[in-house]
TrEMBL record:
Protein name as catalogued: C-type lectin domain-containing protein
GO molecular function ontology, one term from the record: metal ion binding
Main location class: membrane
Record InterPro entries: C-type_lectin-like, C-type_lectin-like/link_sf, C-type_lectin/snaclec_domain, C-type_lectin_CS, CD209-like_CTLD, CTDL_fold
Gene Ontology cellular-component annotations: plasma membrane
Organism phylogeny: Eukaryota, Metazoa, Chordata, Craniata, Vertebrata
Length: 203
């Protein structure tokens, strides 16, 4: 069995693996396309001494790109892309804890809002009649707000509605609309919509 034939089998198996992974994990078609494009132009040449020459620029890039920086990014199906993150907006009503657990099943977490630009992007995609849990909470009821991913809470980058937060017993936060979009503290057991966030995959 020739080395060329073995490589052909490897490439075909890898392609099948990528298709199955895309279908079962929900990654978008662009993710599959990128990976296939990196493998498909493989050209194998043999010289007279039967030494293998892989004259394949894309294969070369396939191994070098991780060290050269991020070149192309993808989000899962039905997720929205902004900056380095992907966002999933769920209209299903859940408690804060259940919302976070739902995000975790998708290898994500409740959204962490780090800038006005991110806040504006999210609100542009939201329904004004819904309240959306975000990844901010006060677990001990001491007004020590914590982001779910341990990002430091920055008082200078907050978007509370006027007069909020206003009750120590309300330990979880929603993003909702009151003439304008802002944050409101509510009881964690209340059921609301939610926003999940994950980092983009870079290829």
């Amino acid at each position: 069995m020739s080395i060329y034939f073995i490589f052909q089998i490897i490439i075909q198996c890898h392609f099948i693996y990528l298709v199955i992974l895309t279908l079962t994990t929900g990654w978008s078609f662009c993710w599959l396309l990128i990976r296939v494009l990196m493998w498909s132009p493989l050209v194998l040449n043999f010289n007279n001494k039967h030494t293998l020459k892989i004259d394949f620029l894309m294969l070369h890039l396939y191994f070098l790109l991780p060290n050269k920086g991020k070149v192309w990014s993808c989000c899962p199906k039905n997720w929205k892309s902004f900056s380095s993150s992907c966002y999933f907006i769920s209209s299903k009503q859940r408690s804060w804890k259940e919302s976070q657990e739902n995000c975790s099943t998708m290898e994500a977490h409740l959204v962490v809002i780090n800038s006005k630009e991110e806040q504006d992007f999210l609100t542009w995609n939201l329904n004004k009649s819904h309240d959306y849990f975000v990844g901010l909470s006060d677990p001990k009821g001491q007004r020590h707000w914590q982001w779910i991913d341990q990002t430091p809470y920055n008082q200078n980058t907050t978007f509370w509605h006027p007069g909020e937060p206003n009750r120590v017993q309300e330990r979880c936060v929603v993003l909702n609309y009151r003439e304008q979009w802002g944050w409101n503290d509510i009881f964690c057991a209340h059921v609301q919509s939610s926003i999940c966030e994950m980092m983009k995959i870079y290829l």
